[in-house]
Amino acid sequence: MRRKLVIGNWKMNGNRAGNTALLSGIVSGLNDFGADCAVCVPAPYLAQCQAELQGSPVAWGGQDVSVHASGAYTGEVSAGMLVDFGSRYVLCGHSERRAYHKESSELVAQKAIAALAAGLTPVVCVGETLAQREAGETEAVICGQLQAVLGVIGADDLAKIVVAYEPVWAIGTGKTATPQIAQEAHALLRARMAQKNATVAAGVQILYGGSMKPDNAKELMAQPDIDGGLIGGAALKAADFLGIIQAV
């Protein structure tokens, strides 16, 4: 039985005072809802998360990672640096990184490898645009993005990743894939992983990342292959984030 996982992606938001209030609200409102939860925050706030979340049920992590362990790569953050601040997770290949920073699926795969080597759990993000969906390319796009990672890791490492399906057309638009549409995509992704190792694939958490909110989370997470959410805007309000976790 896969345990549900809800990860908040703060994107480029936050300040020290606001973060304290948000994290305090999340921690104080958590009960045993049967789900794991985490926040992926801008790198400057990792130390704050470590200080305020250590010993709590809330894990934390980064939003991106370098393929390099160290060196002359100004502005980059290595996996070892994330680990140094107690991180458990790191996002790899978020749709905004792919779109705005032109990250290729091959680069995303190398980032996942770097994360795994450091003991982090990479959250491998995949998703299609509206144009790609309307052209009937959803399966080719999302399975191709995932295959770039599957092609360079072994079955042991497959058990150590999380996958997040982000329909790009549903991020920040207010549009949400119906539970049926989301389930179809998640099932495709699990089937692709099963081609590598069916037993391991059955245990990999696949998160939905397209405008999940408290009022639609329960129906989405009731689908057999939707194991939680990668939450954007709703993760910036403690009540909304807790509402999604409670929907489990």
From TrEMBL:
| EC number assigned by the record | 5.3.1.1
Which residues constitute the catalytic centre? H94 (electrophile), E166 (proton acceptor)
Q: What is its main location?
A: cytoplasm
Q: In which pathway does it act?
A: Carbohydrate metabolism; erythritol degradation; Carbohydrate degradation; glycolysis; D-glyceraldehyde 3-phosphate from glycerone phosphate: step 1/1; Carbohydrate biosynthesis; gluconeogenesis
The yes or no answer to whether the keyword Isomerase is present is yes
UniProt keyword annotations, A-Z: Cytoplasm, Gluconeogenesis, Glycolysis, Isomerase
**Which InterPro entries does this UniProt record tie to the protein?**
Aldolase_TIM (IPR013785), TIM_sf (IPR035990), TrioseP_Isoase_bac/euk (IPR022896), Triosephosphate_isomerase (IPR000652), Triosephosphate_isomerase_AS (IPR020861)
Record carries keyword Isomerase? yes
Q: List localization entries.
A: Cytoplasm
- What class does this enzyme belong to in the EC scheme? isomerase
What this protein catalyses is: D-glyceraldehyde 3-phosphate = dihydroxyacetone phosphate
Pfam families assigned to the protein according to its UniProt record, in alphabetical order:
TIM
One biological process term from GO is: gluconeogenesis
Q: Which residues bind substrate?
A: N9, W10, K11, G172, S211, G232, G233
Q: Mention any one GO cellular component term assigned to this protein in its UniProt record.
A: cytosol
> Which SUPFAM superfamilies does the entry mention?
Triosephosphate isomerase (TIM)
GO MF annotations for this entry? triose-phosphate isomerase activity
Q: What does this protein do?
A: Involved in the gluconeogenesis. Catalyzes stereospecifically the conversion of dihydroxyacetone phosphate (DHAP) to D-glyceraldehyde-3-phosphate (G3P).
Under the heading HAMAP family, the entry gives: TIM_B (MF_00147_B)
Q: How does it assemble?
A: Homodimer.
Describe the family membership recorded for this protein in Swiss-Prot or TrEMBL.
Belongs to the triosephosphate isomerase family.
What is the designated name of this protein? Triosephosphate isomerase
